[in-house]
Structures are given as structure tokens and as C-alpha cells.
Amino acid sequence: MPDSSPYTLFTDGACLGNPGPGGYAAIVRRGAQEREFSGGFRRTTNNRMEITAAIVALEAIPPGAVATLYSDSSYLVQAVEKGWARKWKALGWRRPDRQKALNPDLWEKLLRLLDSRQVKFVWVRGHAGHPENERCDRLSFAAARQPNLPPDTVYEADAAPTPPQSRLF
Predict the structure, then answer these.
(1) 0.85 exceeded by pTM
(2) Which residues, 6 or more positions from 90, have their beta carbon under 8 angstroms from its beta carbon?
(3) Most-buried pick from 9, 121, 136, 160 (CB within 10 A)?
(4) Is 137 a catalytic residue?
(5) How many CA atoms within 13 Å lie on the side-chain side of 118?
């Protein structure tokens, strides 16, 4: 019989400047087994790293899994638990005030993962002595400081200034 014990996920994202080099980290625990994940991008935002950390953690657990994900990002936790991200998607990646929702590429990926897993998101206060949150914080900052980080291609494409349009007439 397969093990049906729940997973416990801890995530964090960091940015050296916002935007700037960024890192993410996740700890995935099930019983006595634990794995750590981290990585980064050369230019990104803190919120993108928070969402990326959750994506990486969820990708590490199988579809159908039950998990609790702990994050110090109220943006991430509220967007999922209060249904904001699903509402933004239903509105064509717009907020109710018609402003463009940020990070739709990541929210789309996260929502797809959540559709096949039973996950409860829990907010924890950052820098308050929570051991796994502190570990993820250290890992994410270390990842952001690595040399030769890859591009966050979606962020860099969206953030690139658009050249002025010349008028022919």
C-alpha cells in the first residue's frame, strides 16, 4: 500500500534589490525524509521568487498529494487562500480594478499544480525564529548571490522598455 502521509512544505524568496538578482528556496518534508531546493535569476522580483519557491515545492510532490505549505509571503498565501489568483485568471489576468495582474505566467503554473494536489497555505512571520523559514531565507539569499544566474526570461521581457514607435505620417 502506498504511503499517504502528508507533505510539509516550507518556501521563501529573496531579492537583492527589487528588482534585482533573486533567489528561491524550498524544503519538502514527508515523515523523516527531507529535500532542499534552491535557485535564482539574475533580474527578477521578490514576489516572483516567492511564487517560484511554491512552484518548485509543489513540483516535488506527486499529483494527488496532501500538503501544507508555509510561507512568509502574505501576497502568496492570500492570493491562494482568498482565491485572488483564481479570480485574476477568470478576469483574463486582470484585477477587479481592471489593472493588469502581475506574474500571470507563474500564477498559471501554480494554479495548475494546485488543481492536482490538496494544499493548504499557511502564513508564518518572517525573521521570527521559525527554523525552516530561516533556513529557506538563508538558501534563497545564497542563491541570489550566485554568479552567472540565468535570466528570468518572462520578467526581463516584460520589464524591457519598448522602443518608441516612429510615425510615418
Answers:
(1) yes
(2) none
(3) 136
(4) yes
(5) 6
